[in-house]
Amino acid sequence: MRTYLSMLMSTICTLLCCADYDLLETGEAESVQLQISGVSANSVTLRWSQYEKSNFAKYSVYYGYGENDIIDINDTLADTLTYARDTQKTIWNLEPSTLYHFRVIVHTTGGETAPSAVVDTTTLPDPYRRIFVKADSISDTSAIVSWSDSRSGKRYRVFWRDTSYDVDSGSTAGMTAVEVHDDSTETITTLRSSTTYELSVSALNEYGEAILGSDTVLITTRRPEPDSVTIDIDEASLTDSSAVLRWTQNHNHDFMHYVVRRGTAPFDSLFDRDAGAVFDTLDTLTGLDDSTTYYARVFVVDSLGYWSASNLDSFTTLATVPDSVTLTLQNVTDSSVALAWDKTTLDTSDFGSYQIHWSTDPNVDTGSSRRKSIFSPETTSDTLKIDTLAQYYITLFLYTNAGRFVGSNEVVNYPVWLYDGAFISDSIVQLTWKKYIGEALQRYVVYRDTVSGVTNTKGILIPDPLRYEEGEQPMARRLDTLHSGGEYYYRVFVDVEGEQLKGSNEVKVEYRPELDSPQE
Are residues 11 and 65 in the same domain? Predict the structure, then answer.
């Protein structure tokens, strides 16, 4: 009877002890008494009673963590001990602040097993290991939060709260949180401008429990950026060393000034908020290099130093304009005009060509249909084969090899060339001119006026019987008597078949009666 009762109690004890241990093949071996003898942030020390029977084979120490407290052979095996007197084990490399479950299983030589009861403990927080957290790219409504943690495949929870909440330390009132998986950065986009926030990060285990934390950092969001402007390059104003930049006006009430920045490479940021402050919506960029591409932006700066950038625009400066040359009329025949000019100061490598343009209308430009090109920079004269009975206006244009050009002064091959007048007595002016070489000449007609711009309709005709001398080729003369002092202007017109069609250049004579010898 005693034997039967002993066997029944043993069976009941085994069933009670192993109610949560249905995955082991249990026998009649008695369980050991397991307890926690030491806990740190990353280790737990176990101690149990010694198994006293002679059929001892080994101890197996198993553990797991989280909500699952049914520890069996499918959990982590910490160690196997083959001596019955070895009744202590320290398990290392555990996570701080984590709940762990432990069990020791006794194995007998007959293949039977008997488990201990499950014991639980939570590892301590790691006082030395913290997550380092920082915030970058802080705008008026967002910030990028990043943190450092050497672990991989983990979960984190990012917390932030407006510091205007009057709460005790550790309170979660007003706290916003978001979970991040397998990453170490999070962009928060729901912040308010001009507001101070506290940020922190916690590392989580797979059950969502915080096992590691960071210090709290403070950030203050910016106020909204000022409204940006739109810029435009005035292409018509481009030169070899300058450009005019225009932009729309900023109307923010806290506007302070504009800053114009330029460079030879694209850029986004403003380095100096006070460099070259501009208050107008126009700026002339000077000191530029010729034939160079530049980029420009206009930054709006407000009273607190916040700024916004305009669009990025680009432009290319023109090639350098060469110095002009002086053109002179050397000689005129009935079929040609001889021209001369001073040598260009351009380097040979920059020289493009000389181009002589002529037209029957003044103010000759490069659109003239009549031109002659000269490609040697050493050339300083040329003869045009043209009908000199017609009056032509002639200009020399100097071109660089980059296509930039400059025009010389304009000369005219008047069919009658009136030389400077000179007094030959107190009131007598002698006019001398090169004779007209065309056919059907009837006479020369001389006009005089007291203002410049003499024509055969505006001026005063010098009447006969003033002395008229035809003279010898190639010169002709005419005398005029002045009756009062002052400035006088003359032109000679050729009367061809009764029409005064061809006029000379205009000369100026100054008569000063108070002088014994009047001066030209």
Answer: yes
Question: Do residues 58 and 81 touch, judged by C-beta distance below 8 A?
Answer: yes
Residues 6+ apart with CB under 8 A from 72: 21, 23, 24, 62, 103
Tally of domains within the chain: 5
Q: List the one residue out of 287, 306, 285 whose CA is nearest residue 296.
A: 285
Q: Find, among 170, 225, 217, 168, the residue nearest to 196 by Cα.
A: 217
Backbone angles phi, psi at 332, to 5 degrees: -130, 125
Same-domain check for residues 96 and 141:
no
Provide the domain limits for residue 240: 231-316
259 vs 165, higher pLDDT: 259
Poorest-confidence range of 59-68, 99-108, 243-252, 481-490?
Answer: 481-490
* Statement: the pTM of the whole predicted model exceeds 0.85: no
CB atoms within 10 A of CB 340: 15
Same domain, yes or no: 86 and 46? yes
Residue 439 belongs to domain with CATH number = 2.60.40.10
Q: Would you give the distance in Å from CA 141 to the centre of its chain?
A: 24
pLDDT one-digit tens code per residue, 69-80:
788 888 999 999
Tell me which residue of 98, 89, 84 sits closest to 30, measured CA to CA: 84
Indicate if 358 and 390 belong to the same structural domain.
yes
CA–CA gap between residue 211 and residue 217 (Å, rounded): 19
Q: Are residues 184 and 284 in the same domain?
A: no
